[in-house]
Give the backbone structure.
Amino acid sequence: MAAIAAAPRPCSRFMPGSAPSPRLNAWMVFAVLGMVAIPAAFDSGDYLRPSPSGYAAMAEAAPPAATAPHLAITFDDLPAHSLLPPGETRMEVASKILRALDDARLPPTYGFVNGVRIEEQPAAAAVLDAWRASGNPLGNHGWSHMNLDQHALEEFEADVNRNEPLLGPRMKDQDWHWFRFPFLAEGDTPEKRAGIRSFLLEHGYKIAGVTMSFGDYQWNEPYARCRAKGDNQAIASLESSYLAAADESISYSRGLSQTLYGRDIMYVLLMHIGAFDAEMLPRLLSLYRRRGFQFVTLPEAERDEFYREDTDLHLSPGADSLELTMTERHLPLPSHALAIPSFDTMCR
């Protein structure tokens, strides 16, 4: 009787410093069972183990690992936004926000400044100093929060310039030349849009875009009223609806990005320095982490190709949001409805 050949010994050695991938394990099992043959170009010579080029080919063929979505958080309307609850100061609001950012170990977070608030409330200047002392940068949001769509270009340019003395001395050699349009209004005519881009380019600015927002500002005023009335049930309703709106906006923005590009762009979130935002920020940051986000800076996020027209102002203006890009491409916008409280009537 012919001798029975010994079964091939299972391979327990792999390339130095590497571990077998699931795809490699399957290939080797099938090879041992005689079900598949390793292509000659990728065989090490024993009809079982891949050669170095075989390992390389398998690595190239393997699907890329899923990457976490990235988010840059930004705050508008420093140093003062919306109403304050009784007994709370602008500095206390800012301190809560800065503590939450620090506790969550977020990277430096841009705050966009309206200088007129310091003219109205001189003590609020301490908010800008605290923001900087915490290692967070400042950007320009216009002196008076002027809407470009409702004003002449020359008025708007003067409003931008008037804000700069608050920024340069506080930022020193760091980059404060980021501009966030108030109301996200970039001009209601082609001439205005082109004109303001030329002005910002001449003054060394880049545009701070927005690709994720849930209208957080809407919660701040009713929160102040409900705190004044001591209406805890209404405040609980504000808290749950705030987080629900933030959660829904994640799915909405990511859905638009996937439809347009088949991937997650790096998102820029618009927030405001309001009392309710300060109260909710620790829970909000936890929500984004649970949804898989990694936090990045605004400049890191805007390296994404989506923001090219915001960071290279030599280019002609185009769609400045995911929604407008969908419209430009004649793609239908998905439903974006969420039940939220009746803010105007709450705690009146």
Notes: Strands lie at 70-78, 111-113, 138-140, 178-179, 206-207, 267-272, 294-295. The chain has two domains: 22-61, 70-328.
